[in-house]
Fold these 4 entries.
Entry 1:
Amino acid sequence: MDRHEIEGHEVIEGEVKPTGNGAHVLVPKRWRGADVKIVRTSESDE
């Protein structure tokens, strides 16, 4: 596993859920319009 250091304001943990031909992660509404970064922390099932 690689190690990444990211400066930010808040961290949440969530589960990626299937949507159509892709997937999504839900974040709080107050994050609308914010820049975010997603880091996968486990192996995918595929």
Entry 2:
Amino acid sequence: MQTAAAAALAFILTAPALADIHVAHMKGTQAMSLAEQWDKIFPKSDKVEHRKITFKNRYGITLAGDLYMPKNIRPGQKLPAIAVAGAFGAVKEQSSGLYAQTMAERGFVTLAFDPSYLGESGGEPRNMASPDINTEDFSAAVDFLGLQNFVNREQIGILGICGWGGMALNAATGDTRIKAVATSTMYDMTRIMANGYEINMKQNALGGYDRAPAQTAEARYQMKTQLNNGRWDAAQNSYATLAPANNLDPEKDITADTLKFIAEYAQFYRTKRGFHPRAVNSNPQGSWANTVPLAFINMPILQRAGELRAPALIVHGEKAHSRYFSEDAFKSLGSRNKELYIVPGASHTDLYDNARGKIPFDKFEQFFKANLK
């Protein structure tokens, strides 16, 4: 186990090519214990150097991350860097870590982090989410990366997966230091909290999902009434009361009538393929704090998307139930340099890991190398 006090001391990376490179620690981070053993859902690469780190956002919350660095960094070299987070309800030991390690193999310094209130990061109550604070988490990751003497501050990008895709676009719209932004299988969490799923829930004949009307204002009012009335009990429990488990037990609960994308979530988060004990979405006993939706319903994170100037790559699966989030977000982006890339045959969770070889890592590499220079 590593304490923040120990981490506060600059340490020398062990690979000979990295002998004079030190990782700078941000001041004022909260002391915390981090798991040092390799507990990811993906194997450790022998092509990169990995370190557990902590950093602090401007709200005073200490975040935990995994820093990945190519082993062939030359003394004095400054590399482009990418901060990665997501999926919504996941931890850095799952999808974001896989993306980060793979991009580090391809020449980038990368940081996969647990957003505030999740995983090994700080923040109380646990399993909370905020469109403001979680957007800030990306900027705090940029702060950390920009303090490293082996990172070029003018070459920092971010990558958001699922619900952190929307946060990433929001962060890149507001933080002009972010030189390129990519999303994978994105959700706009403020939109879905307010509108519900805007699709027919069963797949059509082509394996996709037809659009459907958003939730009405009256239905939204009834939902807000229920959520707000529940605050009395939540307040008595320090707002720590959790909603029921997000995902079904794949061995007991999935039937022929289970919606395909609901089954796909369960088959990732609740099986050996993607399970992690610190992930909200893997927890069989509960999920998010039950007041989470209140922060999202009235706060559209992409309202300034037309002002985004950074290059943007929006990646989504052809067969994903969530594909419309990326298609609509792409249309709204003001970036002159933007691309919507649809992965043939891929579902939403196919882009969580590479079990079916669907994550287009070559595409992400080409995008960031072209725009972080």
Entry 3:
Amino acid sequence: MRAQFVLSEIGVGLRRNLTMTFAVVISVALSLALFGGALLMREQVSTMKDYWYDKVNVSIFLCNKTDAATAPKCAKGAVTAQQKEQIEADLRKMDIVEDVHHESADEAFKHYKEQYNDTAIASVITPDQMQESFRVKLKDPEKYKVVATAFAGRDGVESVQDQRGILQNLFDLMNGMNIAALCVMGLMLVIALMLIVNTVRVSAFSRRRETGIMRLVGASSFYIQMPFIMEAAFAGLLGGGVACVLLLVGRYFLIDHGIALAEKMQLVQFIGWDAVLAMLPLMLAISLLMPAVAAFVALRKYLKV
């Protein structure tokens, strides 16, 4: 009987405040969709870093005859065979180095032609203008500075470059988008909480006579508050369900179909469905608990009779 009464009161409350309930559902859905999207974006950046940082190398570019005339660091002339042997030997002695590959000027020229054969400058570049280099794979890519400190400025070395820098601008952009999404999510969350509190207030005010009678006949505060709390929790859960659908549809159309980023950007390792599905229980739990707690706090004042 008590359960039937509580459920009937929930239905009455939702019907009386249908417009505000709809606003609560939409605001909770948008805020949680942004929240889930921001968390997935952060995981995407982390996945891309793990994938690419494991593949990029530290490049030690050696001086050639052209550099000897134009680059201050190569003022002593092109790298000698002895210097190359010493650099490679020192690299292989380092504990942080996993592998060392020497790329000759001819190999560098071949790779350059493969990548830029259609450009105008490719026709005027000659093999003797290309730099020899050592491609160094580190066990821990974060320790690039150890190699840079050891070899930058050394005789025969023109520069030491960390290829992670090429990707860092992309990661910075994605992190910036992630922060922006979190800020918008925070704003939407505040709006959702305000709507929930106002909806509870209106519902409590419209039924103040019934709650007053229940208080007089000895009903407990928790029993009186329960219908209002469950109304807010139900509306929030609906919003959470919509947010989950938005997240699933977004993953489907952005990556697998529609825009199909997975096909257009095959070098990028996108997060899988398992990451998206793992996010859904958290979003549903927040959508249920957040409105319930907000309603409970609001009711402590507005159900006093």
Entry 4:
Amino acid sequence: MQLFLSPDFNIQSLRRKPKSAAQKIKEFKEKIQSHSLTNIGRVLEAFIPASLFDEHRPKTSRRRIFSIENTFWGLFLQALQPDSSCQSIVHQFRTSERGNKSSISASTSAYCQARKRLPTELLSTIFNHTAQLKDTKHPLLGRRVVCADGTGLLAADTEENQGVWPQQSSQKEGCGFSQIRLCALCNLHTGVAIDYRVGNKRSHELPLLRDQENSFAKNDVFIGDKGFICFYDQARLLDIGVDSIVALARRKPVSAGDAEKIIGDNDLLINVPKFTSTVARSRYPKERWSALPDAIQMRQIKVDFSFPGYRSKGVYLLTTLLDEVRYPAALIAELYRQRWGIELYFRDLKTTLGMEFIKAKTPEMARKEIQMFFIVFNVIRYLMSEAGNGSGDIVLAFKSCVQTLISYCNNGNTLPTKTSVMNISFLLSEIMKCTLYQRQGRIEPRQIKQRPKPFKLMTKPRSVLKEEMLSQAA
């Protein structure tokens, strides 16, 4: 009788040929790529290419389901989705695995360990890559306009977090949250975050801004509110070719009689001298302070805001844009009015994405969480800019764009094609539909209609309250 054998069988043992190491690696890669979390990486490959992971991938490492790519995209989804728990990501891994029975445990231990192993240098590389995706110049100025502002965040009340970011001194121990201070630079036209620094409640915005001095490029224009006016900073920026527009604070405006030149109504050319106070000079590096000029010329422009809802009715602006023909006072006033956009960017980060409260228990993971929020924010802002072709005529709703991206990534298996070019084109066409219709002159009261629930405020540590509850029950 003639025996017909499959070519997969070994003639000597009548068994299937043992799999080679290359076959095992290939099957394992296919298993990893079968998860839906890899769909978001395929969709956003144009913005975060896979090559960024290569140099940060460990050379001698076990092959894991929670690889460096899957862990990164898991963190990405945690910052993107409303449910930001680790358990939610693990469930997504389990339900996306092909086959009837999942081989991934429902425990979050493996994923949490993978998050800790994720290199901080990788997140920095990806953030810097997203910050440089679109270096758009402002259409009114023809130069890149960078605005800065600071905000506060809350972090989980743990001993490690409190050691780095202590709570308010007026709060009792165990009754408050760690206070994080953050200062960020954003492109005024696109909204993309260029850089940021993190400090504690004692950190002022100006020192955090000085740490980001290398993020400026020659011919940039810096815009800041009253917290960023300082002779040292404006002179340093001017020295590297960066002009400034800042609001005057705690100084009496220069009168027309003391001005170097009267350019126009409420537009004066003034001379801003160096500090004379020894205490003030001691705050800065001696070499840098000595290298600054004794005085710098600036324009003082008085701007009156007659828009409903604005708290400031008038403000004095100081700027190093001295050419009144190329930079008229009305243009400078409009640029400063648009500075309010960074407040909206912070609202998108803190309210829409949920960065207002950092859930990480350690400072290391808290910094990774903050960095991931900025990466997600930059990707969405870039998608919005690409969908609107970089023009300011079309305004897109940030929240709606987030919902579109979440829906698109969750349905990655039904994408029209597997090519990244077609995927991103289809995604941009959907984001283009997230139009935000502007209603000029609309104002809303800053009040809450819904009443808070009548829970008592925590005035004692949680452990003390638990003991009191147990003693009462007994």
